[in-house]
Amino acid sequence: MPVVGDLRVLLRLRDFRNLLAVRLLSQAADGIYQVALATYVVFSPEKQTSPAAVASAMAVLLLPYSVIGPFAGVLLDRWRRRQVFLYGNLLRALLACGTGVLIVSQVPDWLFYASALSVTAVNRFVLAGLAASLPHVVAPAQLVTANSLSPTAGTLAATAGGGLAFLLRLLAADSNALVVLLGAGFYLCAGLVSLRLAVDLLGPDHRPGGLHPSVAEGVALTVRGMAEGLRHLARRREAAQALIAMTSMRFCYGALFVTLLMLCRYSWSDDESTGLALLGIAVGVSGAGFFAAAVVTPWLVGRLGTRGWMTACAAGAAILVPALGLSFTPGPMLVAAFALGLATQGAKICTDTVIQSRVDDDFRGRVFSVYDVLFNIAFVAAAGVAALMLPPDGQSVALIVSVSALYALTAAYLKWRGDVSRETSPRAES
Questions:
Q1: Long-range pairs for 217-221: beta carbons < 8 A, 24 or more residues apart
Q2: 13-207+216-429, what's its fold?
């Protein structure tokens, strides 16, 4: 297969391999840490979780990204990205250890959430920096394949890390603190591996005066820089439209994730351990869908274009969500988890490629930070809507039908809002 040959070419590139290793370790740690938080908040026996409680937890952990994200982008366009990976991961390792101590200490929930937020806040810098750095280690014609391998491999690493956390949590009762400490170890390894990359390799290409801005300067630069970044994005029609479509699909995925979580917690099991095991299986099946997307997306983009493949992903989800989800039983829902993993990751690969191809490097960090902000707002908004629509057992026909309709509207938007494929397909870029 041509995709296999392309992957072999990429993996021969030393700098790409090193950047990929940083991503894999960082996102594996993210998966471990996030599962530790989820099991502590949702599956602890002493906690009676409702959809509203899940939405509140997501809001506490994710909405602040809307404030941090723009600042991350402006600073990423001035800081050496290799250093962000080094110091960001070392800082997360230290902060994660603090979260583990708080879990053992049985502190009030607000203090626990504050600690969790400190770790996930740094995550914005690392993930945005990884996306913005990729064009520095591969050729432009290799971006589609690189975006299939790198972010998807990171997602799979997060899934594997989450699976490891699930396993440890099931094997040892009250092991949330131990799981958090395991995540801290992975963060430490990611920081050390980043030392294999040259300090100036990953950009940005132009740093004003070569100096790092102070905090006060960063605040002022954020206001002006975000306005410039948004104006730049407005002039890049293809990137803006892909971002809108991806945000819509992220909303759908978030609503269905909360549904699945409540089904695992209350409908499909009588105890927390069984529900946690079912959720772990669902996450693993969805991860298999991410992997499938990495394999098929370069081939399908070559034939359908990025616009065509994104449209197919949204349209396919619109059909499969009600067909598989309205039964509210584990078998069909697990098939849906695989299909939606494939569709969501396939669309994300296309969106990453369009933004990297159409956004200038000087603005790329800011645009990817906007991307992250929209991702998190969409997910939290979906959790809020799900909290209003879902009963405690997670079975809501109205929510399933509404999500299907939104997928269909997204497919229609992509179909009729211009053609991206000619400008962003591998043929055009080569």
A1: 218/71, 218/74, 218/75, 219/71, 221/74, 221/78
A2: Growth Hormone; Chain: A; (1.20.1250)
